[in-house]
Protein: Phosphonate ABC transporter ATP-binding protein
Organism: Halarcobacter anaerophilus
Amino acid sequence: MIKMKNLTLGYKKEKILNDVNIRVKKGEFIGIIGPSGAGKSTLLMSITGGIKVFNGKFEVLDIDLENIKKKNLIKLREQIGVVFQGYNLVDRLSVLDNVVSGMLKDIPLTRAILKLYKNKELEKAKEYMDIVDITKHSLKRCDELSGGQRQRVAIARALAAEPKIILADEPVSALDPKSAKKVMEVLKRVNEVYGVTVITNLHHLEYAKEYCNRIVGVNGGRVVFDDNSEKLTDKLVEKIYAVN
Ligand SMILES: Nc1ncnc2c1ncn2[C@@H]1O[C@H](COP(=O)(O)OP(=O)(O)OP(=O)(O)O)[C@@H](O)[C@H]1O
Ligand SMILES: [Mg+2]
């Protein structure tokens, strides 16, 4: 569902990632690791069509991303859920409202503002809140939640749009280890239950090894490792984090 062939990506005139060759199949759970500034976020966000393609072939969900047209960009982004470190929730709204807002494409604005949700929408929202284990807080305002809980709400909201791919840029780096593990477990569950492809940037190598099936290591704008997690030896870890 994602094909990158001899791909060079960057911003304006600056090339950041060079000669990237990655193919992603449906249902994979991939962790991207590497030192700060390596190009992890650029690589991840390029999948939403927002990064300039200098060279190569780039296809996501059968859409060509080189010189992508606005109509296709909208179509692409409807199928991709994005979870950030900063959560991006509406703080003064409840957990439930935030999750339902993920379905906004299907709910007319007036109904959403008045919170006139249909039973089917509420059932769906409950399903997503259950899977991230936040249902017991469904009526709390998001600003009353812990960081880990908020991140789980963000995942439920992303799921509500029924995406084919979920991208998570450092979803756990602001969390304590226990909350971080819970968020990683939730991402894994979402991946397994719905078959959603999950790609996540991780600062902690240990989480990538424990939860991801495949690891992509980036260093200095190049992919220096791409294989099953168990193939990652200490020597290869050194190569991924080497200072240039
Ligand atoms: N919007 C932008 N415009 C221009 N250059 C950028 C932009 N965003 C990032 N860069 C540059 O691209 C390079 C890679 O940045 P990127 O954010 O992808 O790295 P990263 O691996 O995610 O780092 P970190 O671990 O710190 O998040 C850096 O040199 C950075 O300065
Ligand atoms: Mg980053």
User: Anything to note?
Assistant: Residues 11, 14, 16, 34, 36-42 surround adenosine-5'-triphosphate (ligand 1) (CB under 6 Å). The two ends are 32 Å apart (CA to CA).
